[in-house]
Amino acid sequence: VGARLGAVLLDDPRAAVDVDSPADLELVQALLADGA
Asked: Who has greater pLDDT, 1 or 32?
């Protein structure tokens, strides 16, 4: 599920709207890295 979510976040242009700060982006990337 985490990997699929990661693919959606990375591939879906709308994800840029949800990540509204560099800190949030880093948090998302960290979560994806932990799930990989």
From this structure: 32
35 backbone dihedrals φ, ψ, rounded to 5°: -80, -15
| Contact present, 8 and 15 (Cβ < 8 Å) | yes
Range of the domain at 17: 2-35
Tokens of 15: 């994800």
pLDDT tens figures, 11-22 = 555 555 555 667
Cα gap 34→14, rounded to integer Å: 23
Pull the structure tokens for residue 26: 């880093």
